[in-house]
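We emphasize that the prediction below concerns an isolated chain of 221 residues; any contacts that depend on oligomerization or on bound cofactors are therefore not represented. The input was used exactly as deposited, without trimming of termini.
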Amino acid sequence: MGGYGRPDYVWPELVQPYVKNWQMFRCPIDPNANDAGLTRDPYGNSVPENDPQKHYYWGERSNIGLNYEFLSPWVYYYDKNGYVGSESVNMGQISQVAQTIMTTDSIWDRNTSSGAPQGAGNWVVEPPCIRDSTGNLLIPISDVKYYQGYQGWVVNETGQAPYSWLEFGGAYPFFRKRFTVAYCDGHVGTVALGRLTDGCDVRSNWAGAAYDGDKYLYDLR
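Result of the prediction step, given as a token string:
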């Protein structure tokens, strides 16, 4: 699940045999979410329609980003020449399934000057906090075999350029400045930015703390 092709699979590929529809992974408001915009490798290069990894690339640029740090954290396998994979948590580990984010709207990148979305979506999103108020890593990230993929949210203090795709951890409010969220119990709703940060002191590079497990929507508490 490292994002660079086989032997990895991205999660939309794994559920595709059941949903049998690639359109559901594309946001209708995202102008980049079409065959031409999605048939690109991780570096943005166009690939042929018959490329054997085409569906990997489509899934990689899904507008539905998985809360992977808590639900499917990345693992560094020392016994497999440093291969990076992922391991999923089970439902029994999630204390409040109706209040835990499974996925939300996502973007691949942003124009640093205008802030406009670029490159369609992203199959994962970053949580704003991964530590509790005592500074300890939250479960399951606290397990030594897991490691953090990106750098959390990039806080934009001014609200002006330059813009980062990680301003909201790769999530993006396509619909009237609201985020579409699917929760782990299966229900879906839209939330304002403030709800995504409830219970968390958001700082760049995961420097903040998730101080309230009942309000914070990303972790398993």
